[in-house]
Amino acid sequence: MQKIQTFLWLNDQAEEAASFYTSIFKNSKILSTMPGSGGKPMGVTIDLEGREFILFNGGPMNDEWKFTGATSFFINCETQAEVDHYWEKLSEGGRTDRCGWLTDKFGVTWQIVPTALGRLLGDKDRKKAGQVMQAMLKMNKLDIAGLEQAYNQE
Q: Per the structure, how many domains does the chain have?
């Protein structure tokens, strides 16, 4: 058990969310369920890529307890295929936003980011890094080829 775990309060979709998330991440599994009433679990603990999440059926959230983009899950992607996979799957039924951000159908915010972005933005040539930043600001789903093209502009 991890010392610190992520706890997500959902209305009544813990089972659905557990199935959704474990279907998207290759190295994932349902670890346990917490009994609830009416045959529906109160909570489900899942492992996604070595990180444990507790999904809890807490009932309707008021405005004070809703998810916001101020907290998000950042996914480092090595390839464009990986970016595309997570972008497509996690945005299904949700909404997309600029700079690799999306909100899934449960209201959870994710950042789908190619590792190349950090390398390009961190370049010592500030002009090139700035060109990459400007390109990124125009994108919703991040495109590695487009970022590299911006970096290589003269």
A: 2
